[in-house]
């Protein structure tokens, strides 16, 4: 099972840092390889040749007005620690290099590329694994045009498809939802580490608001009697800075002032639809996650509306 990640290099300073990171004279680099390059003495010589190619084709300038120039693509092929030979697996450094060579040949046969094999060690649990870092030049040597893989999501799906095919060829397990490595536990994301560094909860602002909604909904659902439970829920949420309203399609919606958006200058208000409180959803509408917190929220809201329905039934009986 191999994970592929990509970062686009859009600045000269990023190019300089990447050149240093991919320098194969560093201690952590086990091996290196190249494709369509003639000056292969060092990472610096490869970078200079790529730069000369881009300059010759006019690719050191943005392709469109008011857009950033995309110099290189930096991709990482990260192998499962369980499948690396340092942990008893079958992927030796030479097989990792063969895998990377096959990947580059399959996806970028007309690009100038070079790659290095790193032996990486997790600072948290000390587990080691192999990862191949690939620098891919933007210029297509056959067409003379910039590399075009289509939309971001389509390109990501295409890369994953290639990796899955190679995993099958090399006898590696497929990536599955949940835990994938026995030797190595999931590590905190960059955002989670930032929250921990600030000595705050690792949960996002959105998660904390969802939990607050669940708490208030649970409180309202336990009230022995209430004439208008939705109004009471809205009143309690308003004290927490959350507005309960209806969206255009009639769904319950919760709005709040986002401090993270305010800091980034992208507006102020975030919205949470009642139909998505049980879990996160993709843009296609498919549920991607349904965790314990989401279940608690969904149950609490269900209780609220059950009591609302019960109150309405009791009121109609009294009228009779």
Task: Summarize the entry for a quick read.
This protein has 320 residues and is of the alpha+beta class.
Sequence-ordered SSE layout with sheet pairings:
Blueprint: E1 2-9, H1 12-21, E2 29-35, H2 43-57, E3 72-79, H3 93-107, E4 113-121, E5 128-137, H4 152-170, H5 190-197, H6 205-221, H7 229-239, E6 242-246, E7 252-257, H8 259-264, E8 269-273, H9 292-319
Antiparallel strand pairs: 1-3, 2-4, 3-5, 4-5, 6-7, 7-8
Helix pairs in contact: 3-4, 6-7, 6-9
Tell me the strand order in the biggest sheet.
1-3-5-4-2
Query: What kind of assembly state do the chains in view correspond to?
Result: single chain
Assign the structural class, choosing from mainly alpha, mainly beta, alpha/beta, alpha+beta, or little secondary structure.
alpha+beta
Low-confidence stretches: 279-292
Spatial shape: elongated
Polypeptide structure, described:
- There is one protein chain.
- This protein has 320 residues and is an alpha+beta fold.
- Helices cover 40% and strands 18% of the residues.
- The protein is built from nine helices and eight strands.
- The chain has helices at 12-21, 43-57, 93-107, 152-170, 190-197, 205-221, 229-239, 259-264, 292-319; strands at 2-9, 29-35, 72-79, 113-121, 128-137, 242-246, 252-257, 269-273.
- It has a five-stranded antiparallel sheet.
- A hairpin with a 5-residue loop joins strand 6 (242-246) and strand 7.
- The chain is elongated.
- The termini are far apart.
- Residues 279-292 have low confidence and may be disordered.
């Amino acid at each position: 099972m191999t994970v592929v990640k990509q970062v686009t290099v859009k600045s000269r300073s990023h190019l300089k840092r990447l050149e240093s990171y991919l320098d194969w004279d560093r201690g952590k680099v086990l091996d290196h390889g190249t494709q369509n390059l003639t000056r292969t003495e060092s990472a610096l010589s490869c970078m200079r040749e790529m730069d000369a190619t881009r300059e010759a084709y006019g690719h050191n300038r943005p392709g469109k007005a008011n857009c950033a120039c995309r110099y290189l693509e930096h991709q990482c092929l990260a192998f499962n620690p369980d499948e690396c030979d340092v942990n008893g697996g079958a992927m030796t450094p030479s097989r990792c290099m063969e895998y990377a060579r096959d990947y580059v040949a399959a996806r970028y046969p007309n690009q100038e590329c070079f790659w290095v094999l790193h032996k990486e060690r997790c600072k948290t649990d000390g587990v080691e694994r192999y990862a191949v870092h690939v620098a891919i030049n933007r210029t297509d040597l056959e067409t003379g045009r910039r590399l075009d893989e289509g939309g971001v999501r389509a390109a990501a799906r295409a890369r994953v498809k290639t990796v899955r095919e190679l995993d099958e060829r090399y006898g590696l397990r497929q990536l599955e939802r949940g835990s994938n490595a026995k030797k190595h536990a999931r590590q905190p994301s960059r955002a989670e580490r930032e929250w921990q560094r600030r000595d705050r909860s690792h949960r996002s602002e959105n998660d904390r608001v969802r939990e607050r909604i669940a708490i208030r909904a649970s409180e309202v659902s336990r009230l022995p009697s209430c004439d208008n439970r939705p109004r009471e829920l809205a009143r309690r949420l308003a004290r927490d800075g959350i507005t309960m309203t209806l969206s255009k399609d009639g769904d319950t919606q919760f709005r709040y002032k986002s401090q993270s958006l305010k800091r980034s200058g992208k507006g102020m208000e975030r919205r949470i639809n009642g139909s998505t409180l049980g879990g996160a959803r993709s843009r296609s509408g498919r549920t991607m996650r349904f965790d314990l917190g989401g279940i608690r929220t969904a149950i609490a809201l269900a209780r609220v509306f059950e009591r609302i329905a019960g109150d309405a039934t009791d009121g109609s009986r009294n009228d009779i």
